[in-house]
């Protein structure tokens, strides 16, 4: 980006030719460069994508893929052997992987910190070519491998995999590239360009950044690791144990696309072992985290405790949990409420950070909403996600199964709660939990306030006349503020809700479900304990990892230290 150039200025007296060293912005054509969201394929019977997907599903389920630790150009295997299994058939292994030891994490830190120096000098235009190539490989040759590893490893249906490991991942690569190109267009004002020129360039941060990924979105893992790399950082990527194979597939695609060794290092590891090693390194430049609040708190505390060690203040980016709501006004369209709520609460077993898990319904509409929810819920097939009529597969693992079941058991035991539908849990073959609807008279009961991260929806029914106090409950009863939706036809209520519910959600929906954000359309993230709200999929996300440098270059020798008025006292 930085090069020597020759700038010419005409003046009535002379033509000055100035040799300057300044920022050169890569070529950019706003309209041609604006990406389109990746189309979501249909997977209809006989379609090419369905045939290709089935081929990949067979291959992935017939192998236990060996997934090494990768540091620079070297592969490592340790004696801490782990397996990734299919959540819907937990005796079936699909990947063998190894936990990195503290010594290997240390080695990766060294490699990344060294690599950052050369990677940061790689021209932006060269990085852009690699990112475009990666997105094309994801959209074409490797699309179905990404989907198959996500379906089998994280128990997603074809549609849920397609919107995640294909569309959203590809969009993250293409849109962040576009957003960075756009940002580079800003150059500071140079008021007297014959005398001096100002410019600004983006660097990575010297040191390394860590990307700590959750299990639930393959695309999020890719975004956490590769978007900071795009702007010049070197990364240690710690994938989730339960999303190893899909995340490793992204890693391999990016290497094939030309991301040099050492720019992103792939380090499956025990969470706290990894967290301890990175936060103790003086070279920690940032943590790009998505996951639960307790883990982010752990990392932030560890960084705080080590503050005196660091070369840079580590950038802390953390997108965390939610307790997302559907608030139904007495004027709402019931059919919309029911359909959006079923999708939001139960698709992918409610394991989206944005999933609706609490509903506020008016007494006047509750009988219709209840009937609608129960009858729609009863049509959902919970099974192997590779079957095309399956609505949702299993929850991710034994720990999640136990946690979600404990909330259902709490409701079964009374505690002022009533299970109106579902409630069965069976982990004999896979970690299956029925979509469950709970009714409560207590808006502060734990299933109305705590993140469950499973297919459990709790409904609080308010008296129509108390609609305003019911609205107040939304923001006062939990510490989260990730996503939320209001359903109403009453325009005044909708308008008011933009103010009354302003701080309750980073992504706010009107007559639409609380899930399903799309890169470039609904930049995503929440506030309060839901995260630092850095808006993945939005124009400022990539800049969060940049280390901008402002350059002022003077062309005219300075011959004086006094200001003119000082010379005429
Ligand atoms: N806001 C968002 O954009 C968003 C998106 C997806 C998921 N989430 C949230 O993520 C959570 C689900 O994901 P999860 O179960 O994988 O979360 P998690 O917090 O259990 O784990 C996230 C990652 O942190 C690692 N980890 C655990 N302890 C660690 C430590 N001490 N140091 C370093 N790393 C450590 C885990 O191994 C994993 O890779 C939910 O709370 C969900 O709401 C939020
Ligand atoms: N982009 C997703 C959220 C990801 C969180 O898990 C959605 O809005 O459904």
UniProtKB/TrEMBL annotation:
PANTHER family: DELTA-1-PYRROLINE-5-CARBOXYLATE DEHYDROGENASE 1, ISOFORM A-RELATED (PTHR42862), DELTA-1-PYRROLINE-5-CARBOXYLATE DEHYDROGENASE 2, ISOFORM A-RELATED (PTHR42862:SF1). This is Multifunctional fusion protein. Pfam families: Aldedh. It comes from Agrilus planipennis. The lineage of its organism: Eukaryota, Metazoa, Ecdysozoa, Arthropoda, Hexapoda. One of its GO terms (molecular function) is L-glutamate gamma-semialdehyde dehydrogenase activity. Its EC number is 1.2.1.88. The keyword NAD applies. It catalyses: L-glutamate 5-semialdehyde + NAD(+) + H2O = L-glutamate + NADH + 2 H(+). Keywords: NAD, Oxidoreductase, Proline metabolism. Coiled coil: none annotated.
């Amino acid at each position: 980006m930085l090069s020597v150039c020759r700038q010419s200025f005409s003046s009535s007296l002379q033509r000055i030719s100035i040799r300057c060293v300044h920022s050169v912005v890569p070529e950019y054509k706003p309209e041609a460069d604006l990406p389109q969201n990746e189309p979501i394929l249909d997977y209809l019977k006989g379609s090419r994508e369905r045939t290709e997907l089935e081929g990949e599903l067979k291959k992935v389920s017939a192998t236990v893929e060996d997934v090494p630790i990768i540091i620079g150009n070297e592969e490592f295997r340790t004696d801490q052997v782990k397996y990734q299994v299919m959540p819907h058939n937990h005796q079936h292994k699909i990947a063998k992987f190894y936990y990195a030891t503290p010594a290997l994490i240390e080695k990766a830190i060294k490699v990344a910190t060294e690599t950052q120096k050369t990677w940061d000098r790689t021209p932006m235009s060269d990085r852009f070519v690699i990112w475009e190539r990666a997105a094309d490989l994801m959209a074409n040759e490797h699309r179905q491998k990404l989907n198959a590893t996500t379906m089998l490893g994280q128990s997603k249906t074809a549609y849920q995999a397609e919107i995640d490991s294909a569309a959203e991942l590809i969009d993250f690569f293409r849109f962040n590239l576009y957003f960075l190109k756009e940002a580079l267009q800003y150059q500071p004002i140079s008021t007297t360009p014959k005398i001096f020129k100002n410019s600004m360039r983006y660097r990575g941060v010297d040191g390394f950044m860590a990307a700590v990924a959750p299990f639930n979105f393959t695309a999020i893992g890719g975004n956490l690791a590769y978007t900071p790399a795009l702007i010049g950082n070197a990364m240690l990527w710690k994938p989730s144990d339960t999303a190893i194979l899909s995340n490793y597939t992204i890693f391999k695609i990016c290497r094939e696309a030309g991301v040099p060794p050492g720019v992103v290092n792939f380090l499956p590891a025990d969470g706290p072992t990894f967290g301890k090693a990175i936060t103790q390194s003086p070279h920690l430049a940032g943590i790009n985290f998505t996951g639960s609040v307790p883990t982010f708190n752990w990392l932030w505390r560890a960084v705080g405790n080590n503050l005196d060690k660091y070369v840079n203040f580590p950038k802390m980016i953390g997108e965390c949990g939610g307790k997302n709501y559907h608030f139904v006004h007495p004027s709402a369209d019931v059919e919309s409420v029911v359909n959006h709520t079923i999708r939001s609460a139960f698709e992918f077993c409610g394991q989206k950070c944005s999933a609706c898990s609490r509903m506020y319904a008016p007494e006047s509409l509750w009988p219709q909403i209840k009937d609608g929810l129960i009858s729609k819920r009863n049509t959902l097939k919970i099974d192997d996600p590779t079957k095309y009529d399956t609505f949702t597969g299993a929850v991710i693992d034994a720990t999640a199964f136990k946690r979600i079941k404990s909330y259902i058991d709490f409701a079964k035991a009374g505690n002022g709660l009533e299970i109106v539908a579902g409630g069965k849990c069976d982990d004999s073959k896979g970690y299956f939990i029925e979509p469950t609807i709970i009714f409560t008279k207590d808006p502060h009961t734990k299933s109305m306030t705590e993140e469950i991260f499973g297919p459990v929806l709790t409904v609080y029914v308010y008296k129509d006349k108390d609609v305003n106090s019911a609205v107040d409950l939304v923001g006062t009863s939990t510490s989260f503020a990730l996503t939320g939706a209001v359903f109403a036809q009453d325009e005044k209520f909708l308008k008011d809700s933009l103010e009354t519910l302003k701080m309750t959600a980073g992504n706010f929906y009107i007559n639409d479900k609380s899930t399903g954000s799309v890169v470039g359309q609904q930049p995503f993230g929440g506030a309060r304990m839901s995260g630092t709200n850095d808006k993945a999929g939005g124009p400022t996300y990539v800049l969060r990892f940049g280390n901008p440098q402002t350059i002022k270059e003077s062309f005219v020798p300075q011959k004086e230290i006094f200001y003119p008025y000082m010379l005429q006292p």
